[in-house]
Amino acid sequence: MNGIRYPVLFVKSAYRILVEFTKRASVFLGITFGVLFSMTATATLGAQVTILYPKPLSIKDHRPLYPLRLLQLALSKLDKPYALKPSKVQMTQGRALRMVGTQKAADVVWTMSTEEREQNYIPVRIPIYKGLIGWRLFLIHATQQSKFDHVTGLTELQHLTAGQGHDWPDNYILSDSGIDVMTSSSYERLFDMSDNERFDFFPRSIIEIWNELDAWPEYNLAVEKTILLRYPTAMYFFVSKDNQALADDIERGLKIAIKDGSFEQMFLKHNEWFIQRGGLNGRKVIDLPNPLIPSKTPLSDSSLWYQLTR
User: Which site in 136, 144, 161, 249 is 20 to 30 Å from 106, CA atoms measured?
Assistant: First the structure.
């Protein structure tokens, strides 16, 4: 009897060990597969999303720098792995808008807002330049300052001709106020035309004009010294109608940046010296109406707009 009992006990013990091992192995494998599944799901959810923006029209065109950094700031406030890359093809502002959201074209563009643009695309209604895109100084031929020394208002300005890009909303704003406009489809060509005095003045935003003057030293151009032309306008980020999620993310990121102060820091870092260099307090201000400004523009929210203090 005793000789048979030990083998039976051994078998029972071995069986219990095997069962316990199987249970532990099952738990271990379950945890392992769960971790692997979780890692796979996280990798899938965390896959990088590439956002295309318009490739600059010229290597001398530094205008996209601030909008891009602001867009990057807004996206960095989110818990999504967005990456920004330029589109493969250079496009005019009008073409970039028409093709936004299509294959290999930009997913997001920044441009002045109009009713038509807000109907055709999704605007993120936070003015990225706080309205300064509608505060204009004049790029002129360096020998022509005397033409402007006695300009005190719109009446005198209507005797002169402005230069603009052919698809820029500013054309209609200027024309609606009786200012003659000469246009070109080439951004670079406008500086050559100004140098050759094809028109009298090239109205440029105060956040554009200094970099543009520096970018074309081969031309005999200067910033006019006495006038600030001003009209209400907003430059927004726009996305295609079928990309509401991206528009919502950009808006959410910008609002977070406004709340935590990083929007204002970015704005001042890139634009404060333009404002100071323009000597705005000593200039004659000519205000124009903007018949293109959309009804939903948040003009009543003073926190979104730059204020000139005298």
Answer: 136
> What is the average pLDDT across 270-297?
93
CA distance 234 to 113: 6
With beta carbons less than 8 A apart as the criterion, state whether 236 and 125 touch.
yes
> Please, are residues 201 and 224 in contact by the beta-carbon 8 Å criterion?
yes
What b/e sequence results for 32-69 when a residue is b if at least 16 CB atoms lie within 10 Å of its CB, and e otherwise? eeeeeeeeeeeeeeeeeeebbbbbbbeeebebbebbbe
The predicted model scores a pTM of 0.75
> Which of 54, 62, 96, 24 has the alpha carbon at shortest distance from 211?
62
CA distance 286 to 266: 28
Higher pLDDT, 87 or 44: 87
pLDDT band at 310 (very low <50, low <70, confident <90, very high): low
